[in-house]
Amino acid sequence: MSKGLLYDATMCIGCKACEQACADKNKLPYTEAIAAEEEQSDHKFTVVVTRGEKFMRHLCMNCADPACASVCPVGALRKTAAGPVIYEEDRCMGCRYCMAACPFGVPKYEWNKLLPRIRKCTMCADRVAAGQPTACAEACPTGATKFGEHDDLLLEARQRVWNNPRGKYVDHILGRFEVGGTSVLLMSSVPFEQFGYRTDLPGDPLPTLTYRVLSRIPDIVPLGGVLLGGVWWITHRREEVAATEGQQAQSKPQPPEGKIR
Amino acid sequence: MKIKWSFWKVVFVFLMAAGLYATAVRFTQGLGHSTNLSDQFPWGLWVGFDVLCGVMLAAGGFTLTAAVHILNIRRLQPIVRPAILTAFLGYLLVCLALMYDLGRPYRIWHPLVMRNPHSVMFEVAYCVMLYTTVLALEFSPIVLERFHLDRALKVIRAVLIPLVICGVILSTLHQSSLGSLYLIVPEKLHPFWYSPLLPVFFFISAIAVGLAMTIFESSLSSKYFGRQLELPILAELGRVLLVVLLVYGVLRFEDLLHRGVLKMLFQPSYEMYVFWIELGLSLALPLFLLSQRSVRTSPGGLYLAAVSVVLGFIANRLNVSITGLETSSHTRYIPKWTEIAVTGAIMAAGFMLFSLAVKYLRIFPTAEGVEVEEEPSGAIGTEAVPATQFLEDVRD
Predict the structure, then answer these.
(1) How much is the pTM?
(2) Which residue of A has its CA nearest to B107?
(3) For B321, nearest residue in chain A (alpha carbons)
(4) What is the C-alpha separation between B156 and B149, in angstroms, rounded?
């Protein structure tokens, strides 16, 4: 079934081992300066944001029904059955609609390259396909980031909320309902807004908003064709009749001038 | 070849030179150096103006071919050609602008073979490609008759009606789809502009702008080329424009009302100010002007109303694609000079090509009406006709 990640911020110690592992896995540079960066970018696919004693990870949520994959005109982004949302750079033409559409602002662009690519966390699709956990989950020393079956992880997250005293967790597992659910689930003791997450996202998958309109097109085309053709026939039929009658009567010399060009 | 310098010629040369330099920067240093785009704000002037406004400004093509060939409104026949010319040039320039904006422009053909029917962008790409082809065919008789290629002309004329029908359907689809592009960002686009009716608004406003552009072009052409359309035709366009704007205005009001956004119109914010500018130019001013009989029957009044509509809906497209998205992205986007220079050069090229076409092809009706053998020249004043002077220099 579909795999997922569960990140529990209350277990995180902010060691950034996940950042290091992610950089190694994706062959990205990782220096002290980069470690200090708190924004995802074309060279940093996951970040651990530190606010005093509290931590929070940012990474691609790998949505169940991803907006990025739905908007990509060439299908360069794709949701795999195993869970990861992958990117095939050979298809991408660089329209950046995925960046405009992503509700989490995840896809990043290589702005300073002449032939740029979209860069983002792909939930270690190759490792997952080989039956391994993601690099970040494997590297995590405390189990704050846990890899497993998505459904099992969601159950476990709910149990953690249930089994702990009220107030340990905010009453919200981020990614459970957002935009139709995501493969990555986040738990926290402080409101997610404080770490730059939006908690007002709609519960329905975003692609339904556009597909509702797009799916009508195959019906509009024949309907429009028949309608326009019919209007043309009616408006020009009057003229034919007028022309014939004009000839018969031989009184008025001409129907309205101006043949179709 | 001696060059007579005039104000517009200087402007044209300056815009082209700046555009060429910006082009060099864009294609040698990449998007990062040539734009103010960022991960937070991935679409800017080239999408918002060059593509969204470019397609909108070219809407006269399908509006007028439908009116004349489908609805059989013969009186409008004389303005079909300028409208088709504008549309054809407009779409060519949109495709050109896309080559700047795409990160890997040499893959612009990818949607042809790598299809994703769930993507609005895919649908727009297909429609724009097909419609540009349709426009080339609709435009071809003007070129064919110039070279007396009667056989080819016959073929085109035989398929003209199906061609026009295809053009109208394709335009309906992608004009509205440019609005549908933004349906997927309900959490990002400001509620003034995010509406489930975005595709409907984009389509109706495209018709309004198509009509306004036709009035606008006709007025400009009469000034610079000594060619103009009869006032009764323009006045009729003005009446239709008034009705289209009223329909759009009522729908827009109902939408704001039902989504409960109306009260935000009076709560000062960045968005409120730009929204009022948009409403003033696209609706309030032209509705006021066009409802006056004296305005509808005066060339100057019609020109003013048309310019207001065009500017108003340019503001609308920029609000949807840029200003309406700024607050949620926590950034303010101001285009870099290179972005403006490229856009300026593309527009200058558009004006240039339009005037060349008017000069060498039979775009506007001549006094005799039907067959004109030699180039329409003459009939032009001697002074203050920069575009024409330029062309004469080219011919020298």
Answers:
(1) 0.89
(2) A93
(3) A100
(4) 11
